[in-house]
């Protein structure tokens, strides 16, 4: 297989592996609060919102050390170990215990930081400035198929149910744990790039020297990666992109946890309210996949750069927020187990709710594919630290959003996303204009990015 063929194979395996793992994890996040609400009359006293807040809080802090860990053990092994911890977190729901639930939340936060840093490193290693847009879109589209499969199962299995039984819960989470483990095993198929050696190199001598200095070299790489993360954090481009990244963290919280909870709490949806959570996840996934395909895989035909895609993303999201504000009761995110009988500015419509799910996914893919692309373009030599900073900002904002989701009414959550999204779009435009100018100075074609 040629070098380019091997790189493309690695991108596909990377995307498929993430698809399996996040089929399990995102489905888990979508239904966690609903499942836990049905458990809180037992000895279990946990909160799905609090768990996700812990996960993203620990994830943000762990991004300070994740480049060092990836530098020491390599991206492939980092992703394998991280995948195991994702599976353990999901398995906790098979027989929930409060202490195990929150302990697993801390562990998966660390694992997630390492996983996404290693993913960014692997994506960049297998791309160049001409293929980073295509590869980012391909990875994103494959990843977002995860929203289809898990949520389709939930929709079919929970259709017509107003209460989630112990048997229903165990069946779902055993299946999700197995799916997560399959994705973890697939990481072993990623092929390493061949090292080139000059003619006449003495293998035995190199091996001896390598053994004697490997520990020192790994430690030096770890320290260098940590220092580079700190340095990159304060560059103009990274600070500007951090506002855009913060917005993606808030939206991630909303569509992966809060919006599904809102749908499941609306009593006017009748016996379909629980199964609609799964259907909502499917429509989010369709939007994500469509966006990844159009704006990633077809990026070579886009001669206007990234800004129009981001502009489309923010417009789509603003339409979705407007419709959600009119369609969903204001107390839906914090409704009790019995749900809410309140009505917003219109009688709750299942069709409008599903349209909003699709728009949330489409807009999110616009932002994330372009962020992955511009980070891989600007920081091709420092991919691990750059992607660690990206996940640090995204996850700390997601943690904050999950925390306030326990208390804020829907209107305030939507207002926060509108304000941060507006400023995040402006800062992205600023960085993109700078990247276009630098590319033009090198005499490259702007459409290649």
UniProtKB/TrEMBL annotation:
| Chain ranges passing through the membrane | 7-26, 46-65, 100-118, 139-158, 170-190, 238-256, 276-297, 309-328, 386-404, 410-431
Under the heading PROSITE patterns, the entry gives: PROKAR_LIPOPROTEIN
What is the official name of this protein in its record? UNC93-like protein MFSD11
Stated membrane topology is:
Multi-pass membrane protein
Q: Which GO terms describe its cellular component?
A: membrane
InterPro entries from the UniProt entry: Ion_channel_UNC-93, MFS_trans_sf, UNC-93-like_regulator
**What family does the entry list?**
Belongs to the unc-93 family.
Where located? Membrane
Task: Name the keywords, alphabetized.
Answer: Glycoprotein, Membrane, Transmembrane, Transmembrane helix
Q: Which PANTHER family match?
A: ET TRANSLATION PRODUCT-RELATED (PTHR23294), UNC93-LIKE PROTEIN MFSD11 (PTHR23294:SF0)
* CDD domains referenced in this protein's UniProt entry, alphabetically: MFS_MFSD11
Q: Does the keyword Transferase apply?
A: no
Species assigned in the record = Cinclus mexicanus (American dipper)
Work out whether the entry's keyword set contains Transmembrane.
yes
């Amino acid at each position: 297989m040629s070098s380019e063929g091997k790189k493309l194979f690695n991108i596909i395996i990377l995307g498929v592996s993430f698809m399996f793992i996040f089929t399990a994890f995102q489905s888990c996040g979508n239904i966690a609060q609903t499942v836990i609400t049905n458990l809180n009359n037992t000895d279990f006293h946990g909160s799905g919102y609090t768990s996700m807040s812990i996960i993203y809080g620990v994830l943000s802090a762990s991004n300070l050390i994740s480049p060092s860990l990836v530098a020491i053990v390599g991206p492939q092994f980092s992703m394998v170990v991280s995948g195991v911890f994702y599976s353990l977190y999901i398995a906790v729901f098979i027989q929930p215990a409060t202490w195990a639930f929150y302990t697993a939340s801390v562990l998966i936060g660390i694992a997630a930081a390492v996983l996404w840093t290693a993913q960014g490193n692997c994506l960049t290693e297998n791309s160049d400035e001409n293929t980073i847009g295509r590869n980012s879109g391909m990875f994103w589209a494959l990843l977002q198929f995860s929203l289809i499969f898990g949520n389709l199962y939930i929709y079919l299995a929970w259709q017509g149910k107003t209460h989630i039984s112990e048997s229903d819960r165990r069946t779902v989470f055993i299946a999700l744990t197995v799916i997560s483990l399959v994705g973890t095993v697939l990481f072993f198929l990623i092929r390493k790039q061949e090292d080139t050696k000059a003619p006449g190199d003495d293998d035995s001598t190199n091996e001896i020297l390598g053994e004697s200095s490997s520990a020192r070299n790994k430690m030096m790489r770890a320290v260098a990666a940590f220092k580079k993360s700190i340095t990159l954090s304060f560059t103009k481009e990274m600070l500007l992109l951090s506002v855009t990244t913060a917005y993606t963290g808030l939206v991630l919280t909303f569509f992966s946890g809060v919006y599904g909870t809102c749908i499941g709490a609306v009593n006017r949806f009748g016996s379909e309210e629980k199964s609609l959570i799964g259907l909502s996840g499917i429509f989010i996934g369709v939007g994500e996949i469509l966006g990844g395909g159009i704006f990633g895989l077809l990026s070579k035909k886009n001669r206007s750069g990234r800004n129009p895609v981001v502009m489309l993303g923010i417009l789509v999201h603003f339409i979705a927020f407007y419709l959600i504000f009119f369609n969903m009761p204001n107390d839906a995110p914090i409704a009790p187990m019995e749900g809410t009988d309140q009505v917003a500015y219109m009688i709750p419509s299942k069709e409008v709710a599903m349209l909003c799910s699709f728009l949330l996914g489409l807009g999110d893919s616009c932002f994330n594919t372009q962020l992955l692309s511009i980070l891989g373009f600007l920081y091709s030599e420092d991919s691990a630290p750059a992607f660690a900073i990206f996940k640090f900002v995204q996850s700390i904002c997601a943690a904050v959003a999950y925390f306030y989701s326990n208390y804020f009414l829907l209107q305030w959550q939507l207002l926060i996303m509108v304000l941060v999204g507006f400023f995040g779009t402006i800062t992205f435009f600023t960085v993109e204009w700078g990247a276009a100018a630098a590319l033009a100075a090198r005499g490259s074609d702007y459409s290649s990015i």
